[in-house]
Specification:
about 0% helix; Sec13/Seh1_fam; WD repeat; 2 domains; WD40/YVTN_repeat-like_dom_sf; repeat; protein transport; Methylamine Dehydrogenase, Chain H
Length: about 325
């Protein structure tokens, strides 16, 4: 597996990065209060900074690209409690489409819904709430729903369920409106939109996570008969949660103890490979074997010096 090093123009620590739908551009979020967009280029071509987005007043924690069906749209969130939705009108010409500042504390995570559900963004905050923002590009403005006290001591991560129901394929006509969240309370929760509001479907309280849940990721389920969620914790553990039917009980299984804080987990588009970022920047890829054991496919050890995480954790809380 080949890799390419991309030089970034940030003046402080980089907290998140996201590649667009076509794999051509990289958006990055930093403690320097900016979001930068870089053309990645080919394997041998140099990368090129094409835009610097300013509008946050403090560290920017996360960035995420919307589906290109809705145009060139990017969202960011940060310590200042703001969520900014950016739109590119012409190549390299970005402006603020929406600014959502209803949260009373740091917004730690954002996630775009599957495109079938519309231009919809979930936001998790240290104020304990989850906001779900539905945007109206044709008429302008947005609608916002709030899950109060989702994790009373603070929300750290959110991820959407696939839009297709279990065992079905794209275009079945049915759509799933569900979210998974993690928090400083060490709990993973599943939420469902029913009868015009968000309701708690399941709370996965267990002794497998003894410290805060740093990330959650719902795997694609196209044509599969089970739902799968990965959760990552400050305690070093990654847990795989599975449910065999809609609304059914979730069973948790320890995937691995990395013996260092696990910051991010992310599934491949096919849902069979899991990426894990842990410790001082080590990235590994894992795949489940036929006997249910997880095998390492690839490891990338950080070439950068260790970074102090205590200040970041304190800021998010």
């Amino acid at each position: 597996m080949s890799s390419k090093k991309i030089e970034l123009d940030h003046k402080d620590m980089v907290h998140d990065s996201a590649i667009d739908y076509y794999g051509k551009r990289l958006a990055t979020a930093s403690s320097d209060s900016t979001v930068k967009i870089t053309n990645i280029g080919g394997a041998s071509a140099p990368s090129q900074l094409v835009a610097t987005l300013t509008g946050h007043y403090g560290p920017v924690w996360r960035v995420g690209w919307a589906h290109p069906k809705y145009g060139s749209i990017l969202a960011s969130c940060g310590y200042d409690g703001r969520v900014i939705v950016w739109k590119e009108a012409a190549t390299g010409q970005w402006s603020q489409l929406y600014v959502f500042d209803n949260h009373k504390a740091s917004v730690n995570s954002i996630a775009w819904a599957p495109y079938e559900l519309g231009l919809c963004l979930a936001c998790g905050s240290s104020d304990g709430t989850i906001s779900v923002i539905s945007m109206r590009l044709d008429a302008g403005g947005y609608d916002a729903a709030t899950i109060e006290r989702a994790h009373p001591v603070g929300v750290t991560a959110v991820s959407w369920a696939p839009a297709a129901p279990l065992g079905s394929m794209v275009g079945s006509g049915q759509l799933v409106h569900k979210l998974v969240s993690g928090g400083f309370d060490c709990v993973v929760k599943v939420w469902e939109f029913v009868n015009g509001g968000w309701k708690l479907e399941s709370a996965m309280v267990s002794d497998m996570h003894k410290e805060c849940v740093r990330d959650v990721s719902w795997a694609p389920v196209l044509g599969l008969a089970k739902s799968t969620i990965a959760s990552a914790s400050q305690d070093g553990k990654v847990v795989i949660w599975t449910s065999g039917k809609a609304g059914g009980k979730w069973e948790g299984k320890l995937m691995r103890d990395f013996e260092a804080p696990v910051w991010r987990v992310s599934w491949s588009l096919t849902g069979n490979i899991l990426s894990v970022a842990a410790g001082e920047g080590d990235i590994t890829l894992w795949k489940e074997s036929s006997d249910g054991q997880w095998e390492s496919l690839w490891t990338k050890a950080s070439e950068e010096p260790p970074q102090e995480q205590a200040a970041i954790e304190e800021a998010m809380q």
